[in-house]
Write a structure and sequence with these properties.
Number of helices: 4
Shape: elongated
Number of strands: 9
Helix content: 25-40%
Structural class: alpha+beta
Distance between the termini: 25 Å
Amino acid sequence: MKATHPLLFREVQRFRDVWWVMALVFGVAALQWYIFLGQIVGGAPVGNRPASDGVVLFVWLLAGVGLPALFLLLRLEVEVSPNAVTIRFAPLFIRVIDQREIAGAEPVTYRPLGEFGGWGVRGWGGRVAYNVRGDQGVELTLTDGRRVLIGTRHAAELAAAITLGH
């Protein structure tokens, strides 16, 4: 039987809450649907140098169907229990950081584009960020010196929960 621990904090953020991301994703998808419907369904090649039907079908499946579906499903879930901080970038992966690995947790204001190159899972040089929106987060310093930034709309509460679980 699996032992359960009370959650000290839980937050779910979605890319679909960010209007400009969804406008971009669905703009790309709309273009792919236009090409697909014109060339595959309508039988009229699109453009001066049209791609083959196979390429159009592949790109449509990837960017016209797959990309919007991914962004509708994609979410950042953060849970803090007395034993661990769990970061899920669902449905892609999960990272669990044991509370014993955390040396400190501090609310921060950061620049997603300037410091990490954008939103999502980003990082280099011993520093990684998990974020969906905004410029607020909690930066964890791990006992081995690595740093993990978790984007959140509730930085003070997240930092307090991590510190309490410590």
